From TrEMBL:
<keyword id="KW-0479">Metal-binding</keyword>
<dbReference type="InterPro" id="IPR015813">
    <property type="entry name" value="Pyrv/PenolPyrv_kinase-like_dom"/>
</dbReference>
<dbReference type="InterPro" id="IPR005000">
    <property type="entry name" value="Aldolase/citrate-lyase_domain"/>
</dbReference>
<comment type="similarity">
    <text>Belongs to the HpcH/HpaI aldolase family.</text>
</comment>
<dbReference type="GO" id="GO:0016829">
    <property type="term" value="F:lyase activity"/>
</dbReference>
<dbReference type="InterPro" id="IPR040442">
    <property type="entry name" value="Pyrv_kinase-like_dom_sf"/>
</dbReference>
<dbReference type="InterPro" id="IPR011206">
    <property type="entry name" value="Citrate_lyase_beta/mcl1/mcl2"/>
</dbReference>
<keyword id="KW-0460">Magnesium</keyword>
<keyword id="KW-0456">Lyase</keyword>
<feature type="domain" description="HpcH/HpaI aldolase/citrate lyase">
    <location>
        <begin position="10"/>
        <end position="224"/>
    </location>
</feature>
<dbReference type="Pfam" id="PF03328">
    <property type="entry name" value="HpcH_HpaI"/>
</dbReference>
<protein>
    <submittedName>
        <fullName>Citrate lyase subunit beta / citryl-CoA lyase</fullName>
    </submittedName>
</protein>
Length: 292
């Protein structure tokens, strides 16, 4: 497993960096990722204060196993350059950049982070019409930049497309699927968009299951109540692990030595399934080690 792209990212909680109470609470919540937002969740008059609060929160630490990202404003706004400079000088794990339109934008963010430690990752929102029509070239920047993860921004995409964001998400399904394929092609991790219905956990759970079905590593969240159901959905289940152990044991059996295709529990099973089984077990071990 590579640490940058293949670690548990089941649940990524956004919070406005201007909200000190939410930052304090995030240190106690069972999410895998905390995103300190300087962009959509922060009003223009609070941008500078939020930037300082995000940097101070990273400096103070206390986030334990959780990865911490700062979501900056776009470099096309009056706040972007200062946000990027502040994040680059902090010890944050990742900088999440919004409203990327094409591969050239990744190069601009890469340049803006030139002075940051090599371990700092660049994460990008996929949320504009231009980006969903340039998924593969944007993902290909993984080889020449710090880019390691995408997050779908379904609210902004709905706004730009003038499409309706219903629980079924019908207008967005082709893009969700294409984004997962482009991300996988270039070794990026990828997280699903947020569910605005934070008081209705049934709606949330069904949307999370849809994300799992599509191949997302996890989901971005807006409220603490969404974390537990999200972790439950994106963790390997007991049945998954029983299957994985059976596959690993079957390929290790002497009678199957050197075989590429065997039967396990009445199903055709190939070496590619052995890879999937090993990944599931490794992910479950990482989740257990993190205690969440
Ligand atoms: N992160 C951490 N804590 C959060 C939180 C979040 N995203 N959202 C709410 N909380 C905390 C509240 O501070 C409150 O804490 P308390 O019990 O100690 O007082 C508790 O959880 C319950 O909050 P609740 O009253 O249910 O919600 P709210 O009405 O205060 O806030 C939102 C609702 C939607 C405004 C809020 O959840 C939020 O700001 N979410 C994130 C928005 C965001 O970042 N958007 C950008 C990306 S899409
Ligand atoms: Mg947005």
């Amino acid at each position: 497993m590579t640490s940058a792209t293949d670690r548990p990212r089941r649940s990524a909680l956004y919070l406005p960096a201007s909200n000190a109470k939410a930052i304090a609470k995030a240190r106690t919540l069972p999410c895998d990722v905390v995103i300190l937002d300087l962009e959509d969740a922060v009003a223009p008059e609070a941008k500078a204060e939020a930037r300082a609060a995000a940097v101070a929160a990273v400096e103070e630490g206390g986030f334990g196993h959780r990865e911490v990202a700062i979501r900056t404003n776009s470099l096309d706004t009056e706040w972007g350059a200062a946000d990027l400079a502040a994040a680059a000088a902090s010890r944050v794990d990742a900088v999440l950049v919004p409203k990327v339109n094409g591969p050239g934008d990744l190069d601009r963010y890469e340049d803006a982070l030139a002075s940051a430690p090599p371990s700092l990752q660049l994460w990008a929102m996929i949320e504009t019409c231009a980006s969903v029509l340039a998924l593969e070239p944007i993902a290909a920047r993984a080889s020449s930049t710090r880019l390691s993860l995408w997050i779908m921004g379904t609210n902004d995409l709905a706004k730009e497309m003038r499409a309706q964001l219903t629980p079924e998400r019908t207008p967005f399904l082709p893009f969700l699927s294409q984004a997962v394929a482009a991300a996988r092609m270039h070794g990026l991790a990828i997280l699903d968009g947020v569910c605005n219905e934070f008081r209705d956990l049934d709606v949330f759970a069904s949307e999370a299951r849809q994300g799992l079905l599509f191949g997302f590593d996890g989901k971005s969240l807006i409220h603490p109540a969404q974390i537990e159901p999200c972790n439950a959905t994106f963790s390997p289940s007991e049945a998954d692990l029983a299957w994985a152990c059976a596959v690993i044991a079957a390929f290790a059996a002497p009678e199957n030595e050197g075989k590429g295709a065997i039967q396990v529990n009445g199903k055709m099973t190939e070496l590619l399934h052995l890879d999937q089984a090993r990944r599931l077990v490794a992910m479950a071990e990482q989740i257990a080690a993190s205690g969440r």
